[in-house]
Amino acid sequence: MERRLTKLLVANRGEIALRIIRSARLFGLKTVAVYSAADAKSAHVGAADEAILIGPAEAAKSYLDIAAIIAAAKHSGADAIHPGYGFLSERPEFAQAAADAQIVFVGPRPEVMAALGDKVAARRIAVAAGVPVVPGIEAAEISATREYAALVGYPLVIKAAAGGGGRGMRVVAEAAQLESALGAAAREAAAAFGDGRIFVEKYLAHPRHIEIQFLGDNHGAVVALGERDCSIQRRHQKIIEESPAPGLTDQMRAKIIGAALKLARAAHYTNAGTAEFLVEGDDFYFLEVNARLQVEHPVTEMRFGCDLVCEQLRIASGGKAPEPAAPRGAAIECRINAEDPEHDFRPATGTVLHLSVPGGPGVRFDSHLARGAEVTPWYDGLLGKLVCYGANREEARVRLVNALGEFALLGVTNNAAYLRDIVASGQFRDAKLSTHFIDSFFSGWEIGKSEIDAAIVAAAITAGGAMGDIPSDGPALPAGAERRSPWDDLKNFELWGSRR
Amino acid sequence: MERRLTKLLVANRGEIALRIIRSARLFGLKTVAVYSAADAKSAHVGAADEAILIGPAEAAKSYLDIAAIIAAAKHSGADAIHPGYGFLSERPEFAQAAADAQIVFVGPRPEVMAALGDKVAARRIAVAAGVPVVPGIEAAEISATREYAALVGYPLVIKAAAGGGGRGMRVVAEAAQLESALGAAAREAAAAFGDGRIFVEKYLAHPRHIEIQFLGDNHGAVVALGERDCSIQRRHQKIIEESPAPGLTDQMRAKIIGAALKLARAAHYTNAGTAEFLVEGDDFYFLEVNARLQVEHPVTEMRFGCDLVCEQLRIASGGKAPEPAAPRGAAIECRINAEDPEHDFRPATGTVLHLSVPGGPGVRFDSHLARGAEVTPWYDGLLGKLVCYGANREEARVRLVNALGEFALLGVTNNAAYLRDIVASGQFRDAKLSTHFIDSFFSGWEIGKSEIDAAIVAAAITAGGAMGDIPSDGPALPAGAERRSPWDDLKNFELWGSRR
Amino acid sequence: MKLTRAGDLREIDAEVISRDGGAIRVRIGDRQLAAEFTPNADGGGVLTIDGRRYRVFGARRKDSILVSVGPASFEFKPAEAASRRRARGLAAAEIIAPMPGKVLMVMVREGDLVEAGQPLVVIEAMKMETTLTAESAAIVKHVRVEEGQMVDHGAVLIELSPSPASSVRESAPRVE
Amino acid sequence: MKLTRAGDLREIDAEVISRDGGAIRVRIGDRQLAAEFTPNADGGGVLTIDGRRYRVFGARRKDSILVSVGPASFEFKPAEAASRRRARGLAAAEIIAPMPGKVLMVMVREGDLVEAGQPLVVIEAMKMETTLTAESAAIVKHVRVEEGQMVDHGAVLIELSPSPASSVRESAPRVE
């Protein structure tokens, strides 16, 4: 069962590719990056020991192209593949293709992934293992669904059986909406996942999203590394995650961890996985298993003093899932995304003209960004994860507020100020956590007026010359050109920064 | 005894000022930076809530000017002063001046500092407390010293009573050198510290430098936060520090910690302090107490999951020294200095043209550097401290090797490659630690030949255009000027980087 | 000088009144602000307004000025372009791509009469879909893109002419 | 083209032989290296030589080229300046400040006869003292600085003329 690995292909990009490369090196492996034409100059390409172009910018023809990635692995002599998260990470056929090519897939076996990837099947496994699930049914016939709805009461939530990460979810507030919502959801699910099956669940009023990190090995052992609270979500996308879950009693924690372990054992799970639950009052309900490394895994690492990617590699090479160290302190992560929080969070792109990265005690920034990096419209907009540790939640929280205060990024519109305001808020301080947190407290968020004033003054200074030595990204004026800059009206004072 | 603090003046500069500001903010304090004219654009000035110019570049007229700093504290309404390390941090008269101005000094009381600052007095306190000291005597008369030397045997080491951090130390190999060495040491000590008293100690063949971090509060409690091994020194200056000390038995650790606590209690010590010891075989000898925060304090923080500056502030405001959490894992720090390891470590200066900072799990970089920052000849050359955590020493060590591999700094010659080679070496891996480590294994260090080749190729590419978008620091050529660059011979190819 | 913030057509009327060393007075609308600017070696600086210090960075890109104030980032443009367009009666007359991306759906054809709020085009960027809607009733004059096409930031996707039934409101296309 | 590394007078004879896309051939002395350069968005790039990848950055400063290879940093200068100086027989004839700093001690006076290795000047920078010594026997021709004075990097501190007793070796002043 032991297999000594030597070279790891990382089938991903961005911050997670870089993060995996770092731990692979720590584990003693050579690394192979793969990249699309749009990513030729990206950080993960420069960081690996080898880099292989696998296709054009379109993910379908590069990061989602199983054949191209397996070919790259064979070409480079990689004996293992780490899929990261997203892209092919939960595709059983990818894990199978790796196995067929005698390459170790760093994740669960294909059949486990297939069983857990289907929400309906995963739900059945949970029920069989005695793990509570949200009351709900597979939506087959409208009349049966209507009857069920009348029984558990509105609002309800409709989900795609093959979906994940909140995609394809919709809430139905009243009976009149049910039929059209079911039709639309089925069509959307079919279009998005090639699988039109949907199911209907009771919608919880103030649920918290709590998930359990676990590791299973090939020797039959499964261990849990505590929980994460990921209740702060915007449109079902997590933006702030923490561990431990504030206010969760030891008894509840033990119950939920017990359920996750039962489930993982029932599924014969190997490698890293996460069982997601909704928690309301003294009840908890199984949601789904994410059969891969999660975006938010660093909060667990900081609390447990471990490296989950190293553990994944250890398990993949036949090693044992270690008994975790006792957790310590608290950790909170926030996701800095390329999006415009002042304009409905529409995606943003651009070139990084300046980047200030926070540092010091208890601060970790996982990111592929650097000055000059380009954020393109081709892939998701996660720019980096800022994670802070503290001896307790309040220390971690204030550290995160301060670290966000040290963060500065010019050239790509992003949500850092929005995150700062959330983490600094009384509601977050008081841990008023539910998946409706954003809708309840931050739906009408606006940037502070005094910050806009400061920005206007800063713009006037910048218009008057470069503020310092940050170069313009646009085409420079031809020397001696007569073209009048639209900023000339403000240009009535000298350069403030130093000339060098 | 409780005193609620509101505003902290940081009487320091560089990385430590920034680090103190970060924790002061975490502790809920407003911060005041002080700066010399040479530091007007430095990071700590921008990071604080207020910044006050205290004098010209010369440290004696700025960072060492007690009156100017006390005046700045009064002017800004600061109710506490943190001295950092170096500069005034161990000057009892500074602590006294703060006390006289009703300002809380974040450190031990002046009389404690005075007693421990004198090496001879500290040695007496240790002896009285039953703590072993290196066999030695105060060097008063040459004939008595010669007699003593014959008794304990050569080599011997001569130290200044008022010295610290290795300054004023010299080793005497044989009797013939004794008299001139004593004279020179006394003159040097008088010149450097205004105090010509010296003492003579037995020189140990393979001692390790092991020190104990402790915290004392105003309620009489003193707690220890484990040990640090700082054996890797170059000319008595620590360059690599770690915790725990590899291979130290629990019994020895307990003995040394016990001795440190006895000493701290005997001195009625308050706030953060470090007791330094030499350890050889089963013997350990007290060296001195550093009555301040040490440069290398982060390795303790990473192992104990604590924030020592916050603890200092808590104690200074009347709080209790907390019972430390159980330590976990291992941490190693290295000091990146502005110096040229290929040319006798002579100091380097310059402007940062590019900086790549390592990141990811278990990596902490404490630094005031940023692109554009200037390193001037006025102050010490510490550019930053790169600290890595691991579940065990080997994990921390490999992480540090990799993190140093990710570090890049253009514009200021530094020792990062030298540190990388030390941390990557078999001798360091095998923890062959003694204060002679550098002399034994790295006195003839050279940069790798393949790296020089790569540098020559990179220089050719850079000469052919800018490599990417890193601007030249020198005066740009006047447009259309005919001046021939000395690099034009290599300029036979296009710009490699992207034009934007 | 008038500025607009990117994505926001409300004009900001700002003017530098005076400066003396690091001291700068700026008028914003009918308010005056006194600020002190201290450059930092890292290319940014500290702006002090009403005793509060802001870490700021700034850069120019094409006809925009980008600045950051702590973690908040801003893009300003001179208001002239927008007001000129409005002066020519072109408000809401062009549906413009708010970011680069792929045209996923075009929901109208030339000659269609559309109502305020009606979805016209769906663009996909970064795995997210954005629906662009009509700001007011109008007639589709020209559809400039087709489904599956990649478009740049600022590309004109659809041209509209005023509907006979209603006058064009004086505001910009909005992203829903 | 000949280069020298800063602080090291040994000349490096390097020449770009060819380049094709990212492929570059460089001659160093009598060796040839084949390298592949791939630029990165961060302004640096990856240099592959003999299958090993190096992260490199480069910049020009005055008449120097600064490059980093991983954590190692290098400063190159064209060799012309140094060889011209040597051609004029000025090797070891000037004691030059290796860094900016304060002159702490001047240990010789004009007309003094000094021996190889004899300390001439002590400079302090960054709390460290550096003693500059004579590379060979010489006569002190001119002392250009006095104690307490601040000097810049590259400033000439002392001029020497060849000692009647020995010839000047063809090498640069060394810092001990």
Characterize the overall form of chain C.
Answer: elongated
**Which architecture of the largest domain in chain A would the CATH scheme give at its second level?**
2-Layer Sandwich
CA radius of gyration of chain C: 20 Å
Strand order of the largest sheet of chain A: 14-13-10-11-12-15-22-20
The CATH class name of the largest domain in chain A reads: Alpha Beta
The major sheet of chain C is characterized as:
8 strands, antiparallel, barrel
What is the assigned CATH homologous superfamily of the largest domain in chain A?
A: ATP-grasp fold, B domain
CATH topology of the largest domain in chain A: D-amino Acid Aminotransferase, Chain A, domain 1
| Element string of chain C (H = helix, E = strand) | EEEEEEEEHEEEEEEEE
> What's the end-to-end separation of chain A, in Å?
62 Å
Fraction in beta strands of chain A = 15-25%
Contiguous low-pLDDT stretches of chain A (5 residues minimum) are 466-484, 488-500
Structural class of chain A: alpha+beta
Q: Count helical runs of chain C.
A: 1
Low-confidence stretches of chain C: 87-91, 166-176
Counting copies of identical and different chains, the oligomeric state is heterotetramer
Counting DSSP E segments of at least 2 residues, the number of strands of chain A comes to: 23
The largest contact between protein chains, plus residue counts on each side, is: A-C, 71 and 66 residues
Descriptive report:
The complex is a heterotetramer, with 2 copies of chain A (500 residues) and 2 copies of chain C (176 residues). With 500 residues, chain A is α+β, with helices and mostly antiparallel strands. Chain A has 3 domains: 7-106, Rossmann fold; 135-202, ATP-grasp fold, A domain (Dna Ligase, domain 1); 208-441, D-amino Acid Aminotransferase, Chain A, domain 1. Chain A is built from 16 helices and 23 strands. In chain A, the strands form 6 sheets. Chain A has an 8-stranded antiparallel sheet with strand order 14-13-10-11-12-15-22-20. In chain A, helix 4 (92-100) packs antiparallel against helix 5, helix 7 packs across helix 8 and helix 12 runs antiparallel to helix 13. Chain A is globular, with a radius of gyration of 24 Å. Residues 466-484 and 488-500 of chain A have low confidence and may be disordered. By secondary structure, chain C is mostly beta strands. Chain C contains 1 helix and 16 strands. In chain C, the strands form 3 sheets. Chain C has an 8-stranded antiparallel barrel with strand order 1-2-3-4-5-6-7-8. A 4-stranded antiparallel sheet of chain C has the order 9-16-14-11, with no helix packed on it. Chain C has a 4-stranded antiparallel sheet with strand order 13-12-10-15, with no helix packed on it. In chain C, strand 4 and strand 5 (45-49) form a beta hairpin. The radius of gyration of chain C is 20 Å and the shape is elongated. In chain C, 39% of the residues are buried.
